[in-house]
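Suppose a classmate hands you a notebook page containing two proteins, each written out with its sequence and a corresponding row of C-alpha cells. How would you begin to make sense of it? This section walks through that situation. The first entry is reproduced here exactly as it would appear on such a page.
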Amino acid sequence: MSKAQDPFYIVKEEIQESIDKLQSSFHQWERILPDTGEQVHLTKELLANCESIEWKVDELNKTIDVAARDPSWYGIDNRELESRRRWTITACTQVGDVKKSVVARKENGNSASAMRRELMKLPISHQSDRSYQYSAEDNDDFIASESDRQMLLIKEQDEELDELSASVERIGGVGLTIHEELLAQEKIIDDLGTEMDSTTNRLDFVQKKVAMVMKKASAKGQIMMILFLLVLFIILFILVFLT
C-alpha cells in the first residue's frame, strides 16, 4: 500500500496541519497583551485545539499498536513502526509545550488579576473624586461596545467548534475504514487457512493411494506411475495456487 493510500499517512497529514495552525495561533497569542478579551478568547481556543490534537494522536497510536501485532500483514516492517511511533511522540511533545505555556501564563494572569482586585478594594485617600467619575453616556457606550465584542467572539467560537466537529467526524470515518479493512483481511486469512487444510487432506489421500499402487506395481510400472503422479502434481499445483 502506497503512502498516499495508507490511512496512517492520511490522518498524519491532517494532524500535522492542525499542529501547524496551533503553533501559528500560539505565536499570535504570545504577542497579545494579557487581560484583554482577545487574549482570553484565544487562550480558550488554544487549549481546546490542544485537547483535540492530543485525542487524534492517541487514536493514531491505537492503530499503530494494532499494526504492531502483525506488521508483515500490513506491508510494513519494524523500522516503519518505529518511525511512526517517533512521529507521534514528537507531535505530543509539540502540543504539550504549547499547552504548558498557555496554562502557565493563564495561571499567572489569574493571580495578577486577583491581586489587582484586592488592591482596588483598599481605601485610597488623597485622590480626587473627579478622576473616578464616569458619565452615564460613557458607561452606555462602553457596555454596548463590550456586548458587540462578546457577540463577535461567540460567533467565531461557534464556527471553530463546527470545524472541530467536522474534523472529528473525518477521523471517525477513517477509523471505521481501518476497522472494516481489518475485518476483511481477517476473513481472507480464514478462507486461505481452510483452503490450505482442504488441499493438504487431498494431497495426503493421493500420497496414500500412490504408496499402495507402488507396492503392487513392477519397477517399470513404478517409473510410469512416478511420471504420471509428477504430471498430476504439477497440474494440481497450477490449479490450486496459480488460478
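The notebook's second entry, a different protein, reads as follows.
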Amino acid sequence: MATHVGTICGALKRFTRPHSSNWVSKKKGFCCKMSTESPSLTHTITLPNKPNEPVHIVAASGVSHSDFWSAVESSLFKQWLHNLQTENGVLADGTMTLRQVLVQGVDMFGKRIGFLKFKADIFYKETGKKIPGIVFARGPAVAVLILLESDGETYAVLTEQARVPVGRIILELPAGMLDDNKGDFVGTAVCEVEEEIGIKLNVEDMVDLTAFLDSKTGCRFFPSGGGCDEEISIFLYRGRVEKEIITQLQGKETGLREHGELIKVCVVPYKKLWRTTADCKVLVAIALLEMAMKEGLLPTLSA
C-alpha cells in the first residue's frame, strides 16, 4: 500500500508547478499534498485505571528510534506513570487526564537510561486547563549522613564536588542514583560511601531517616518536585573513631575516575554543619535527625 501511494504521488509530481512544493488539484475531486516531513515516532498506551483515556507517546524532532523506545520501556518512565495513579497521584481522583507525552531527550549511561526529558500534557477535565508538565526524570537516589564521634566532638563527613549544572563547587552528602530496578536503597547507600569516602560501612548500622516520615509521603523527599522526579532516601551512620581517622579523612581524594568523579572529602564539626553548605540533602538530613532525636526514635549508639 505504501509503495502504491508513493508511485501515484511520484507520477503526479511531474505536473507540479515550478517553485511550488504543495498543490491541490480540484479535477475529479482529487487532492494531493506533498510534504518532505517524515512521520513522527508514536506509541499509544492506556493506563490500568483509565482504559477509556488513551495516552499518545510522541518523539520530538531529533529523538532516534532506539532512544524513543528505550524511553518508553524504561523504569524511569514506567515509575512516573505508576506515580500518577497512586493514592496521592495526579490522576487519582479522576479530575485530570493525561493526553500526550512528548519525549524530548534521552541521555544513556552505558546501556541504561540515565536521564530522560519529556513534556506531559495533563488537563483538568472540567475546565480544559493544562497544568505545568515539563519533566526531568532521573529516578530514585540515596544520600548518607555520616557522623563520627572523636574526643567528645561529633563530625560530619562530606564530599566536595564540581557540580556543572549550578556552576559551583559544592559540599554535600555522599550520594548516588539507583542503578537498577531492584530498589536496594540501603545497599546503594553503602556502595556510594565506599566509592566517595573510601570507608566500608555495614548495612546493619544504617538508619533510614526518611523512614520516619508519614507513610503517605512515600518515605522519601523530593528536592525539586516542580521539575524533577528525583526522590531521595537519607540514611544515617554513626560511629566512634580515633582522632587520627578524622585527620586521615580530611582532604582525602576519592571517586571513580573512570566516571569523571573528582571528589575531595571534607570533615566538618556537626554543630557547624547547618550553615556550612546549601546542599538540600544536608539540610534535610539535619532536620530529620534533630526531630528523630527529639522524639527518641534513634537506636542507642553502641560503644
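A careful reader of the second entry would note: The first helix runs from residue 2 to 13.
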